[in-house]
Amino acid sequence: MNPLRRVWNAVRLVGFLCLRTRFDWPAWRAILAGGAARVDLRSHSTVRAEVTRRTFRTLSLFLALEKRGELEVKAADKERFVLALPGGVGVDVKVGVARLLGPALKSGRVRLQALTAGECRLEFPEYGFGLSGPLHAVTWAADEILSEYYYHDADYGGKVVVDVGGNIGDSALYFVSRGARRVHVYEIDTRLSEYAAQNFSGRENIVLHPYGLACRNGIGPAGGAVKEINDELRAVLSAEGRIDVLKMDCEGCEHELVSCLEKGILAEVGTVWIEVHAGGRESVLDIFSAAGFSVGLQRRLPWAKDVVLYRLDRRG
C-alpha cells in the first residue's frame, strides 16, 4: 500500500476512535496495532462494539445513517453488524455485505425499505425501481449499479435487450430505466428467478425466462433446466424483429455459450456486453471478431481480478 495511504488510514482510524468512542487506551492501542477490541460508543449507552481496522469505517457510516434516522445499530463485532430499520428487529449483516451496504446508503442514491433475516429491499429513486432479494445479492447489485463498472456506457433507448444471467433482475430493470423497449431475461437459478419475477411485477416490457441457456437442451451443472441458445435467440428475433443488445454474465459459462453461437444469429446482434473469466479469453474475443465485432470498452472488475467486462460493438 502507498505510504501516504497508510498514514491517511491511520489518521482516519484515530479520528474515529476520538469522535465515536469513549476513551479506553488499552482498547485503542489494540485496535491501532491491528487487532480487535470492544469499545463504548459515544452515541450509545448500551452498545459495546468490537472494532477493527477493517470494520471501523463501515461502523462510522452506519452511525452517521443512524443519526439521520435511517437505521439503528444494535451491535457490531469483527464478523457482523446487527442492524435494524427504526423501531425494527435487529438483523445480522456480515461484514462483507455491510461494507457494500454502508456506502450505498450513505450516498443518498439508495433507500433501505425493508430488512429481515437474510433479505432486504432497496429503492433506487434516480432509476425508478426497487430490488428485493437475498441481502448479499441486493447489496452486490447496488454496489455494481452505483459504480463506474456497470453497463452505463451504451444507448438503450428503444432497444431490444437479451439478458443472459439475469440474477434478481437488476440489470434488466436498469436497461428499462434507460429506455429499453423490451428485455428478455434468462436466469437458471430458481430462487433468483423468483425474486426477479417479484421485482418485475407490473412491467410488461420485461419477459422472464426461468431457465438457463446452453449448447443443447437439458439440465445444467447446478441442476436447473437449460435450453439451446440459438433456438431461444431465434425465438426472440421472431418475436421482436431484432436484438440490439446481448448481455452475458453467466459466471463462467460464457466460454461454452459463445463457442456454439451461430454466425447467422450474431449477425442480428448490435452490441454485446460480456463478462469473461480467465482461461480462453482470447478465443471468446476471436469468435466475436470473426462475426464482425470489435472491443469498444474493456474493464477489469476490481472485485474479481480474473474477470474482464467487455463491450463489443459491431464494426462499420
Q: What name goes with the CATH superfamily of the largest domain?
A: Vaccinia Virus protein VP39
Task: Give the number of domains.
Answer: 2
User: What is the level 1 CATH name of the largest domain?
Assistant: Alpha Beta
Low-confidence stretches: none
Number of helices: 11
- Strand element count: 18
Description of the molecule:
Strand 4 and strand 5 (91-94) form a beta hairpin. The mean pLDDT is 92. The protein is elongated, with a radius of gyration of 23 Å. It has helices spanning 3-20, 25-32, 56-67, 95-106, 135-146, 170-177, 190-199, 229-240, 254-259, 263-266, 281-290; strands at 37-40, 48-51, 72-76, 80-84, 91-94, 111-116, 119-124, 129-134, 160-164, 182-186, 206-209, 212-214, 218-219, 225-228, 243-248, 269-277, 293-300, 307-314. The strands form five sheets. The protein has a seven-stranded mixed beta sheet with strand order 11-10-9-15-16-18-17, with helices on both faces. Strands 3-4-5 form a three-stranded antiparallel beta sheet. Strands 6-7-8 form a three-stranded antiparallel beta sheet. With 316 residues, it is of the alpha/beta class. It has two domains: 3-141, no CATH class; 147-314, Rossmann fold (3-Layer(aba) Sandwich), CATH 3.40.50.150. Helix 4 packs across helix 5 (135-146).
